[in-house]
Amino acid sequence: MAVSQNGEVMGGIICNITGRTDIQYDGNFDKYSELNAKVVIFLYKTKLQSNVFGQYPSVDHILDMNIIAVNRPYRGNGICKSLVKKSKELAIELGCQMIYAECSSNYTAKAVENFGLKCIHSVNYADYIDEKGNVMFKTQSPHESFKVYALLL
């Protein structure tokens, strides 16, 4: 977490370590509300489609940067870059071979790209439809796709 001198939260990042055998799910989405299930299913399918461990067979553990957020007044000041840099240092310290981010925001995607992460999978929101052909997530420009990024360490 990044905190200003006056104690205001400037931004934060939530990370976890994911191992090669950790990406599993029993397919039971009934425990989620209808809206939450749609999001969880989307994230689960995207994680499977990105196939990070298949694309990088020598990687056994990744530091997954799950949520990256910067408080609006502090955006554009390098807070995200600092958070990603600290996460990379932590990943190396913990023996991870990769850092990984799933970006729903175009701004976060640009920030991790600037840090050197490469896009390994992308889903256009307009292409993700339900069984009736309706777009599941209606986003505003410039947030047009969900992107998965990775950087070998």
General description of the model:
It is globular and about 50 Å long. The protein has 4 helices and 6 strands. The model has no long low-confidence stretch (mean pLDDT 91). Strands 1-2-3-4-6-5 form a 6-stranded mixed sheet, with helices on both faces. The protein has a single domain (2-152), classed as Aminopeptidase. It has 153 residues and is α+β, with helices and mostly antiparallel strands.
Care to give the gist of this entry?
The protein is of the alpha+beta class and 153 residues long. It is built from four helices and six strands.
Which features would summarize this protein structure in a list?
single chain; 153 residues; alpha+beta; Aminopeptidase; 6-stranded mixed sheet; 4 helices; 6 strands; 29% helix; 29% strand; globular; N-acetyltransferase activity
List the helices and strands and how they pair.
Layout: E1 2-3, E2 9-19, H1 34-50, H2 52-55, E3 61-70, H3 79-93, E4 98-103, H4 106-114, E5 118-124, E6 145-152
Parallel strand pairs: 3-4
Antiparallel strand pairs: 1-2, 2-3, 4-6, 5-6
GO molecular function, one term: N-acetyltransferase activity
Organism: Sipha flava
Domain N-acetyltransferase: 66-111
- Biggest sheet, spatial arrangement of strands: 1-2-3-4-6-5
CATH architecture: 3-Layer(aba) Sandwich
Query: Over all CA atoms, what is the radius of gyration?
Result: 16 Å
Look up the CATH topology.
Aminopeptidase
Instruction: Report how far the terminal alpha carbons are from each other.
Output: 22 Å
What is the CATH homologous superfamily assignment?
Gcn5-related N-acetyltransferase (GNAT)
Instruction: Give a count of the beta strands, DSSP E runs of length 2 or more.
Output: 6
Mean pLDDT: 91
Spell out the helices and strands N to C. EEHHEHEHEE
Structural class: alpha+beta
Largest sheet: 6 strands, mixed
Strand content: 25-35%
Percent range of helical residues: 25-40%
CATH level-1 class: Alpha Beta
- Number of structurally distinct domains: 1
Q: Give unreliable regions as ranges.
A: none
Which term fits the overall shape? globular
The count of helical stretches stands at 4
